[in-house]
From TrEMBL:
<dbReference type="GO" id="GO:0016597">
    <property type="term" value="F:amino acid binding"/>
</dbReference>
<dbReference type="InterPro" id="IPR006131">
    <property type="entry name" value="Asp_carbamoyltransf_Asp/Orn-bd"/>
</dbReference>
<dbReference type="Pfam" id="PF02729">
    <property type="entry name" value="OTCace_N"/>
</dbReference>
<dbReference type="InterPro" id="IPR002082">
    <property type="entry name" value="Asp_carbamoyltransf"/>
</dbReference>
<dbReference type="Pfam" id="PF00185">
    <property type="entry name" value="OTCace"/>
</dbReference>
<dbReference type="InterPro" id="IPR006132">
    <property type="entry name" value="Asp/Orn_carbamoyltranf_P-bd"/>
</dbReference>
<keyword id="KW-0665">Pyrimidine biosynthesis</keyword>
<dbReference type="GO" id="GO:0006520">
    <property type="term" value="P:amino acid metabolic process"/>
</dbReference>
<dbReference type="GO" id="GO:0005829">
    <property type="term" value="C:cytosol"/>
</dbReference>
<dbReference type="InterPro" id="IPR006130">
    <property type="entry name" value="Asp/Orn_carbamoylTrfase"/>
</dbReference>
<dbReference type="GO" id="GO:0004070">
    <property type="term" value="F:aspartate carbamoyltransferase activity"/>
</dbReference>
<comment type="function">
    <text>Catalyzes the condensation of carbamoyl phosphate and aspartate to form carbamoyl aspartate and inorganic phosphate, the committed step in the de novo pyrimidine nucleotide biosynthesis pathway.</text>
</comment>
<keyword id="KW-0808">Transferase</keyword>
<dbReference type="GO" id="GO:0044205">
    <property type="term" value="P:'de novo' UMP biosynthetic process"/>
</dbReference>
<feature type="domain" description="Aspartate/ornithine carbamoyltransferase carbamoyl-P binding">
    <location>
        <begin position="7"/>
        <end position="147"/>
    </location>
</feature>
<protein>
    <recommendedName>
        <fullName>Aspartate carbamoyltransferase</fullName>
        <ecNumber>2.1.3.2</ecNumber>
    </recommendedName>
</protein>
<feature type="domain" description="Aspartate/ornithine carbamoyltransferase Asp/Orn-binding">
    <location>
        <begin position="159"/>
        <end position="313"/>
    </location>
</feature>
Length: 335
């Protein structure tokens, strides 16, 4: 895959070689993210962050990633704060904003909207999530996290045994991750969810057609003895009402007792965050916070590395990083 100048819109763009390159460059970003050194390879470049749907981690990590490479960040948050609220088309917005930018990261509540926007952009556009469709950068950081966590146990992405649990119908993160996992060998995917929130048939078919074992169930008991549990929240914003979402909230909570009863000693817990900690939901109990295999915060930090890598690759500076290093001159306890 040619990265330089390309949009990053869907995980369907990637083969295993492209993914390996992204994960390799992501690992190279660790010294900069941990403040062991600085890199100003994108000094003077401008990222426009266009987030027309609520976001904390994705929006901030995109900006942080660009800053860590020396670039400047401009942000528009909320459709009501843009000319879209005045009837401007995505194409027209893209034509204008790309003229102000070197790269754009975008999130929008409408499926396929980021691809529509990219058609009008003269600079690379990176999809930060388009409705219930895809979240390619989250899937890449999830894959990077799984690879990193499995290395501790002498395992790899091939022959992975993973459980996807929660709202699998609306959770774009699990849709994108499943598509990436289909590229690997001998994967077992157990999908645990209420029957009404099961994984879309098209996603299941992608895994099955690639020769992987898929188990679909609405039962936790007997189905969590795996390498990775990937928990997702009930996507309230995708339901017609809060009352409808409440029908499913809290049915698939994971706590220390359930972990010890059903999981393996090495089972890693992941979640794209935010986790819903309200009593009626409590997807991942706080009694798991001291568990060494709880990877959710390492997972979030890995988002910065992967997004740094995507900026470096799309702007063609991935082989110039060490030429633009500087020492860190302030106190930091990150390293």
């Amino acid at each position: 895959m040619k990265f330089q100048g390309s949009h990053i819109l869907s995980v369907s763009q990637f083969d295993r070689d492209a993914i390996a390159r992204i994960l390799d460059v992501s690992a190279q970003m660790a010294p900069y993210a941990s403040r062991l050194k600085r890199c100003h390879v994108l000094d003077g470049a401008i990222l426009n962050n266009l987030f027309f749907e609520p976001s904390t981690r994705t929006r901030v990590s995109f900006g942080t990633a660009f800053n860590l490479l020396g670039g400047f960040v401009r942000e528009t948050v909320g459709e009501e704060n843009s000319s879209l609220s005045k009837g401007e088309s995505l194409y027209d917005t893209a034509q204008v904003i790309s003229g102000y930018s070197d790269v754009i990261a975008m999130r929008h509540p409408k499926m396929h909207s980021v691809s529509e926007f990219a058609e009008g952009s003269s600079v690379p556009v990176i999809n930060g999530g388009d409705g219930a469709n895809e979240h390619p950068t989250q899937a890449l950081l999830d894959l990077f996290t799984i690879q990193s966590e499995m290395l501790r146990f002498g395992k790899s992405l091939d022959k992975l045994n993973i459980v996807l649990m929660g709202d699998l119908k609306h959770g774009r993160t699990v849709h994108s991750l499943s598509k990436l996992l289909s590229l690997y060998n001998n994967i077992k995917v157990t999908m645990v969810s209420p029957k009404a929130l099961q994984m879309p048939d098209g996603v299941i078919s992608t895994l099955v057609d690639a020769g992987h074992e898929v188990v679909v169930t609405d039962q936790i008991a007997g189905n969590l003895a795996c390498d990775v549990i990937y928990q997702t929240r009930i996507q309230q914003e995708r339901f017609a009402s809060k009352d409808e979402a409440d029908l499913y909230r809290g049915h698939f909570s994971l706590n220390k007792q359930i972990y010890q009863q059903y999981c393996k000693d090495h089972t890693v817990i992941m979640h794209p965050l935010p986790r819903d900690s309200r009593p009626e939901a409590n997807e991942l109990d706080t009694d798991l916070n001291e568990l060494a295999n709880l990877a959710i915060f390492r997972q979030a930090q890995n988002g910065v590395l992967v997004r740094m890598a995507l900026f470096a690759l799309t702007l063609g500076v991935d082989n110039k990083l060490t030429d633009y290093e500087k020492p860190v001159t302030w106190f930091t306890n990150k390293n």
